[in-house]
UniProtKB/TrEMBL annotation, chain B:
<dbReference type="InterPro" id="IPR001455">
    <property type="entry name" value="TusA-like"/>
</dbReference>
<feature type="domain" description="UPF0033">
    <location>
        <begin position="6"/>
        <end position="74"/>
    </location>
</feature>
<protein>
    <recommendedName>
        <fullName>UPF0033 domain-containing protein</fullName>
    </recommendedName>
</protein>
<dbReference type="InterPro" id="IPR036868">
    <property type="entry name" value="TusA-like_sf"/>
</dbReference>
<comment type="similarity">
    <text>Belongs to the sulfur carrier protein TusA family.</text>
</comment>
<dbReference type="Pfam" id="PF01206">
    <property type="entry name" value="TusA"/>
</dbReference>
Length: 367, 82
């Protein structure tokens, strides 16, 4: 029997229980597996912030439909045979995005505050479960963090900050980097064997891939650019534009979902057009027509556009219609007819000449 | 006797919201109850059954047409809420 497959013995015969933060990526998958190899009962928790990059966002767009439509956290949980609790923290998370104590990374990504917040949420869950279920509660928290892997949150000096500011303290164990870090409660108490934890550090992914092979994990998600839209420059630019136009830093869930979809064009400070790029996005934006004024071509096939904001004149409306017509099949026609529909359902038609490319300056394109 | 079927409408919501709402609804229902979830995100067709398998609920039926996915499930044993 290999070393990795030998469960640690628990003389007191209490199976220790851990809550693991499961993102769906390789690191958290390995962290869970490393605990299971030591006989720990693990349950996963996955937090929905509203900014999560999921295969499903691609599912909106037809051209991306052969991309993965699964939720990776669920897939990992099933592969590892653990329960997964998906928790909607999108409302409480706003404060993390709007007021990050430790600031932003390269874009509007508050990675360190985010990690502290998530570990804190897991700590609250752990405390609640211990209160309700005693021995059947949970003993510690596990993350897939690796020292030096992420420039903002996963550095040697940020690891203790996450432990202390989250309130998890020494109940927070990072199995992949544990041997580079001070001993934690599960190690001190002998619930897990520190010698069978790892000392990974840095951005090199080879040790993780080798460990995956050792664990017999042949398939795993390899997200490019992380799992959060806030690390994406174009997305962050759209969010910053939204705040600038509203003269205040706030957002609702619908706002941040809509930033993931369509072509965003702002011809004026007081309105922005969200123009679908194909049928899947059309269908998605359709669901918002009861909230936004919308424009759609009727004389030829074309996109659906939502108007985030208001028109102050008929001129502005006609300019917006011409922009939308530019992205329709009738872009070369002399005239395109569009329907303008108010959220209340009142509709009228306007006929415009489609805008020429140089009539839509690059500076109007947001993102 | 016709079984009482609970309904959940999560149309136009993107995953994982349909899964979260299914999870929250299931937590309110008794073991053995039947829930019919209507979604428009095609990803739900993978995720809701996966969530059911992980958490011990039984998928009775899945249906899909051009625009909608409908998943019918039977609630299993309750788990310790985290």
């Amino acid at each position: 029997m290999s070393e990795a497959a030998t469960p640690i013995s628990h003389p007191e015969s209490i199976q220790r229980r851990a809550i693991a933060l499961v993102s769906g990526g390789l690191d958290s998958m390995l962290a869970v597996k490393a605990m299971q190899e030591q006989g720990i009962h693990v349950e996963g928790v996955n937090f929905f912030t509203g900014f999560c990059v999921e295969g499903h966002t691609h599912a909106i767009r037809k051209k991306d439909q052969d991309k993965n439509k699964r939720n990776n956290a669920l897939w990992v949980a099933e592969k590892l045979g653990i329960k997964l609790h998906i928790v909607d923290i999108s409302e409480e998370y706003k404060d993390v995005v709007l007021n990050p104590k430790h600031g932003y990374g390269a874009n509007l990504n508050p990675c360190l505050d985010c990690k502290i917040f998530m570990v804190n949420q897991a700590t609250l869950m752990l405390n609640k479960a211990r209160e309700l279920a005693g021995e059947k509660g949970f003993d510690f928290i596990v993350t897939g963090e690796v020292v030096g892997q992420r420039p903002k949150s996963q550095r040697k000096e940020t690891m203790p900050i996450i432990s202390s500011e989250s309130g998890a303290d020494d109940r927070l164990l990072r199995p992949l980097s544990a041997r580079n870090l001070p001993e934690t409660l599960p190690e001190r108490e002998g619930w897990v064997d520190r010698e069978r934890l790892y000392d990974f550090s840095g951005r090199n992914r080879k040790p993780q891939m080798a460990l995956a092979r050792k664990f017999g994990l042949e398939e795993y998600a390899q997200p490019a650019g992380g799992c959060c839209f806030l690390t994406d420059e174009s997305y962050s630019n759209k969010l910053a534009d939204l705040w600038r136009a509203r003269n205040e830093r706030r957002y609702e869930l619908d706002d941040i979902m809509l930033l993931k979809v369509g072509r965003h064009i702002r011809p004026a400070e007081h309105h922005k057009l969200i123009i679908s790029r194909e049928e899947g996005e059309n269908r998605f934006l359709e669901g918002y027509r009861y909230q936004f004024t919308s424009l759609t071509t009727v004389s030829c096939p074309g996109p659906l556009a939502l108007v985030d904001g208001t028109f102050e004149s008929d001129e502005e409306l006609r300019r917006a219609a011409a922009i939308v017509a530019r992205y329709s099949k009738g872009r070369a026609d002399d005239e395109v007819v569009l329907e303008v529909k108010e959220p209340g359902g009142v509709a009228r038609e306007v006929a415009v000449r489609p805008a020429l490319p140089d009539e839509i300056p690059l500076s109007w394109h947001v993102g | 006797m016709t079984e009482n079927v609970h309904e959940l409408d999560v149309r136009r919501q993107l995953c994982p919201i349909p899964v979260i709402k299914t999870q929250n609804k299931v937590n309110e229902l008794a073991q053995g109850a039947v829930l019919r979830v209507t979604c428009t995100d095609p990803g739900a067709l993978n995720d809701i059954p996966a969530w059911c398998r992980i958490n011990g609920h039984e998928v009775l039926e899945t249906e899909q047409d051009d625009r909608e996915v409908v998943i019918t499930l039977r609630v299993g044993e309750p788990s310790v809420a985290l």
